[in-house]
Recover the amino acids of this structure.
């Protein structure tokens, strides 16, 4: 088959396919006894209404609402003034849980905590620092994963964690428990305040993954038998710092 003949064959196949599509849609309209809609409906409004775009809670309201919503989904929230308090919480929680292995993101905020110096009886690993390591397998073995939230949303009680080479999604998805540090300046009122950044970044500027965490993993079968921790950490702590 020559190139010209092949092109003609493709054009004929497309023409026949479109005719069949039109006949199929016309038959549906005939059976419904109403004319076909061939033009897209008019949408006078796009996105959230203005009143919702302007809706904001005060800083304390954001904290209170996030705490209530996150806890209602089974998560735990603690308010702290400094990162030193967050460090003390992590050290105490690791001791309480008898944690043998902790995995954290490779970010400067967590490096500054110097957890390795405090947790002498616990192995603390840093994501993606050894190219020979099977990091997903190591994350599945971890007792605790530690991340810094990129955003948090009060209205939905959600923490947003982005993926990158230094912030693997497995750190928040695979360990038994998760500790997420949320700087208060990253706590927003509405989900739209977070999503607009992704819209403005465009497709080429999007991270490898965008993960919304609203408490521990919750799964229910057809009989509504709720199970915690099947598809993610069964215990999630949100530390509001600032």
């Amino acid at each position: 088959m020559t190139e010209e003949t092949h092109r003609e064959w493709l054009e004929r196949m497309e023409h026949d396919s479109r005719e069949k599509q039109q006949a199929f849609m016309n038959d549906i309209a005939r059976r419904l006894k109403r004319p076909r809609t061939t033009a897209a409906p008019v949408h006078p409004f796009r996105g959230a209404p203005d009143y919702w775009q302007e809706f904001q809670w005060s800083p304390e309201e954001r904290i209170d609402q996030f705490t209530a919503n996150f806890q209602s989904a089974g998560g735990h929230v603690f308010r702290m003034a400094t990162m030193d308090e967050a460090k003390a919480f992590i050290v105490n929680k690791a001791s309480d849980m008898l944690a043998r292995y902790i995995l954290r993101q490779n970010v400067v905020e967590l490096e500054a905590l110097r957890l390795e110096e405090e947790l002498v009886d616990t192995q603390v690993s840093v994501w993606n620092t050894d190219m020979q390591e099977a990091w997903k397998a190591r994350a599945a073995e971890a007792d605790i994963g530690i991340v810094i939230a990129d955003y948090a949303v009060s209205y939905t009680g959600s923490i947003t964690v982005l993926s990158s080479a230094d912030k693997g999604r497995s750190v928040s998805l695979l360990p038994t428990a998760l500790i997420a540090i949320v700087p208060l300046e990253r706590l927003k009122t509405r989900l739209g305040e977070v999503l607009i950044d992704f819209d403005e970044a465009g497709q080429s500027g999007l991270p490898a993954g965008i993960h919304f965490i609203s408490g521990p993993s919750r799964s229910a079968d057809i009989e509504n038998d709720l199970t915690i921790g099947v598809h993610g950490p069964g215990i999630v702590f949100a530390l509001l710092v600032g």
Remarks:
- The chain has a mean pLDDT of 90.
- The radius of gyration is 25 Å.
- The longest helix spans residues 3-32.
